[in-house]
Design brief:
Elements: E1 2-7, H1 12-26, E2 30-37, H2 44-59, E3 68-73, H3 84-89, H4 112-117, H5 125-139, E4 143-147, H6 154-170, E5 175-179, E6 208-212, H7 215-226, H8 235-238, E7 247-253
Parallel strand pairs: 1-2, 1-4, 2-3, 4-5
Antiparallel strand pairs: 5-7, 6-7
Helix pairs in contact: 1-7, 2-7, 5-6
InterPro entries: GlcNAc_PI_deacetylase-related (IPR003737), LmbE-like_dom_sf (IPR024078)
Protein name: PIG-L family deacetylase
Organism: Ruminococcus bicirculans (ex Wegman et al. 2014)
């Protein structure tokens, strides 16, 4: 199996799909992670820190930086009103962030755009879509794990919508599992008192896929979450640590 995990920000890949990645690697599959943004809403130095936090977290799975792909777009906030990717998606015009007006890699490596054009991309909706299509075609995944359209973070929702657009362009069947990070009530979901993930109450009628990990993998996931010190894993009633459960939840998407 060839798995591509699409992460809007650095830590989403670990929170959503650590056990899935572990299981794929255990079966000698391949895993690549595609980061949509640099997570730079606090500046370039913050993006640099987050890059190496992800690198250190992924090292617990034996994944090296060659498998970390960067689109290199901006991050300006969580709400749909502040989200950079939502703003990008709403207009064909070039957008700027306080940090940059074009793609960049926080550790001065290649972005997806510079890999196929040898230049950086202006922040436009068409460039983002083109880069996403190129990345998917380059990785040739048999399975994609990506954000859900039910996620309330603007960047997550926009990534889901861009993925729908990209797969229609590619027009090749690829199985998609969508994951959920941000809901209406993060104080109670994920359940802090249970070691098993259950869907949010407003989404229980959907068919969820449960991916389980062994005790060692679950412990490794918690250690991986600890790598993201910039995100304060114990904050908000241990919101990040609440994702270190015996299973992970996904919705099987049907994209026409």
């Amino acid at each position: 199996m060839n798995l591509l995990v699409i992460a809007p920000h650095q830590d989403d890949e670990i929170l959503s799909a650590f056990l899935l990645m572990h299981n794929v690697l255990e079966k000698n599959g391949t895993v690549n992670i595609l980061y949509a943004t640099n997570g730079d809403y606090r500046g370039i130095d913050y993006a640099y820190t987050r890059y190496y936090e992800s690198l250190n977290a992924l090292s617990l799975l034996g994944i090296c930086e060659d498998h970390m792909l960067y689109l290199g777009y901006a991050d300006t906030g969580m709400s749909k009103e502040k989200s950079f990717l939502m703003r990008l998606r709403s207009t064909p015009e070039q957008q700027n962030s306080p940090v940059s007006s074009c793609t960049y890699h926080p550790a001065n490596k290649e972005t997806v755009h510079s890999l196929h054009t040898e230049t950086q991309a202006e922040y436009t909706s068409q460039n983002f879509l083109d880069d996403l299509v190129y990345a998917i075609r380059s990785c040739s995944p048999s399975l994609i794990a990506a954000p859900s359209i039910f996620d309330l973070h603007g960047d997550h929702y926009a990534c889901a919508m861009y993925l729908y657009d990209a797969l229609r362009i590619i027009n090749h069947p690829i199985k998609v599992l969508s994951y959920l990070i941000h809901t209406e009530n993060e104080d109670v979901w994920p359940n802090r008192k249970s070691d098993i993930f259950q869907p949010p109450k407003n989404l229980t009628t959907f068919h969820w896929i449960y991916v389980y990990g062994n005790k060692e993998a679950v412990s490794a996931k918690r250690n991986a979450i600890s790598a993201f010190s910039s995100q304060s894993p114990s904050a908000d009633n241990c919101f990040l640590y609440s994702f270190a459960k015996q299973n992970e939840l996904f919705l099987l998407e049907s994209i026409q």
